[in-house]
């Protein structure tokens, strides 16, 4: 005979366990988003300050390269495609579009895994 006072049992699904590839995607996406914001800030600084803003562009480039590599590794892109993405980052408008596309792909992958993704990347990471 069953216990009538026992609470009902519910099947609760756990979200996908964070793996190293999801960690790479989440941290890479944050770096890419910060690089995009720094890119626009550096453009404004270039008009105000002048050539000193080149340091901000250099920091933006380094952040975006690390972020692109992490996202591409987390999404399991082949090595030759990662290198192509890093080289394409050197072309000004193509690099910005590339950052936006990779950030979008990272967002869809993180949402599929159950993460809450906002304007500045994954919140639960």
Automatic annotation (TrEMBL):
Q: Please provide the record's keywords in A-Z order.
A: Membrane, Transmembrane, Transmembrane helix
Q: Which residues cross the membrane?
A: 31-48, 55-73, 79-102
Q: Where is this region: Disordered?
A: 1-23
Can the keyword Membrane be found in this entry's annotation?
yes
Q: Which domain of life is it from?
A: Bacteria
Record has Membrane as a keyword: yes
Q: What's the protein name?
A: Transmembrane protein
Q: Which organism is it from?
A: Rhodanobacter geophilus
């Amino acid at each position: 005979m069953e216990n009538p006072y026992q609470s009902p049992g519910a099947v609760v699904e756990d979200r996908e366990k964070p793996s190293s590839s999801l960690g790479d995607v989440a941290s890479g996406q944050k770096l890419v988003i910060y690089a995009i914001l720094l890119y626009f800030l550096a453009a404004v600084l270039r008009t105000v300050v002048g050539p000193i803003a080149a340091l901000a562009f250099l920091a933006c480039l380094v952040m975006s390269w690390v972020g692109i590599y992490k996202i591409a590794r987390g999404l399991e892109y082949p090595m030759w495609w990662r290198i192509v993405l890093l080289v394409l980052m050197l072309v000004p408008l193509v690099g910005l579009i590339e950052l936006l596309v990779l950030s979008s792909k990272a967002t869809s992958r993180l949402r599929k895994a159950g993460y809450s993704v906002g304007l500045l990347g994954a919140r639960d990471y």
